[in-house]
Amino acid sequence: MGQQISSWSSFYENGFIWNPALSSNYGNKELSLTHRSEWSGFEDAPEFGTLSYQSPLTRDQNKASIGTFLEYDKAGPLQNIALSGTYAYKIKPQLLKKENDLLSFGLLIKVQQLRLNTIELVHPELQLSGASELPNSTSIQPNVGFGFHYVSASDKLSDRYYFGFSMLNMIPNKLNTIEGISLSSSMHITSNLGYRKFLSSSKAILDINLLGIYAATRPYDIMLNMRYEKVNKFWLSAGLVNTGEFFGQFGVILGKRSGNSDASKNSSIRLGIKADYSIGSISRVAGLGYEFYMAYRFGSNQKEITDKGYKPSRVY
Predict the structure, then answer these.
(1) Of the N and C termini of the chain, which has fewer Cβ atoms inside 10 Å?
(2) In the chain, how many H helices and how many E strands?
(3) Does residue 156 sit in helix, strand or coil?
(4) What b/e string do you get for 203-224 counting C-beta neighbours within 10 Å, with b at 16 or more?
């Protein structure tokens, strides 16, 4: 039940929605809003949106962090609204004698409302004639999830590899519908693996990663993604999914260092747009999918990478 979101491209900024261990993984306070729509060629196409906030919990930004988000997920007559809270705790395991690595453990707690709008199952002409008075089905239930994430170096100047794993919707939720039929939400398992390279000559970041999402009701989805980010300027991203979908994303970073003199020290506004297209027989009628992302990343007293040169930082 609900979308599986196989090709989500905001993993870098909003990754804690899929893995709570990534709460405030950049060590910044951030308020963000996203909206995603798939298959724009169809009426009542699937939609997904979030309003989220994440922040370090302690002065040591490599220690603990929290997050919260409100999500809206709709696919035809099925609707899911949920409020979640996350907590992440980080340790330095020093695996393979790496002194600056980080291992994060995350917990997610959720309250969600599942709803079936049965009137949308009826032909429009019957709706107008009042021939059908099917009752809507609604259920409010809790859910939980957990995850972990490892990064080989917490210093922003260092190249690093990383990997993570999470399990969400661990409590099976059922929604009883008409004539004794029930719908259930399935557990989602997410894994990712990647390598991040800092290009000191151009003051940019190159990131290549694999993402996998599994839900009990459908096959495993795998996404290959490549992202290039010019520090404090812009980012470009593109990828392929094994389901036959490919996508591209572009974003700009507005802040004091990129020409916005009203921005607070180290703070920034991030605006991104993504488009995706599915290859195959459905592509002729499905059309493009799209996603909008915008966020305000609060400034901090931590030194960070600037477009005038690199400054040390211990924030992941």
Answers:
(1) N
(2) 3, 16
(3) coil
(4) bbbebebebbbbbeeeeebbbe
Kindly state the tokens that stand for 289. Answer: 């999918």
**Exposed/middle/buried for residue 15 (C-beta within 10 Å: 0-12, 13-18, 19+):** buried
- Residue located via tokens 């392929």: 240
β pairing state of 204-215 and 188-199:
antiparallel
Q: Give which of 14, 83, 87, 6 is closest to 270, Cα–Cα.
A: 14
For tokens 């599915």, the residue is 278
| Coil, strand or helix at 15 | helix
Residue 305: strand, helix, or coil: coil
Structure tokens of 259? Answer: 């020409």
Residue predicted with more confidence, 115 or 22? 22
Phi and psi torsions of 13, nearest 5°: -90, -40
Write out the two tokens for 237: 């991203």
Distance, in Å, from the CA atom of 206 to the CA atom of 223, rounded to the nearest integer, reads 17
Q: Which phi and psi (to 5°) does residue 142 adopt?
A: -90, 165
Confidence of residue 67 (pLDDT cuts 50, 70, 90): very high
CA distances from 103 to 19, 42, 250 (A): 13, 43, 30
**Average pLDDT, stretch 170-198?**
80
The pLDDT score that the predictor gives to residue 57 is 87
Residues comprising the chain, all counted: 316
Instruction: Read off the tokens for 189.
Output: 């398992």
CATH topology (fold) of 11-231: Lipocalin (2.40.128)
d(CA 160, CA 64): 21
How many Å from the N-terminal Cα to the C-terminal Cα in the chain? Answer: 34
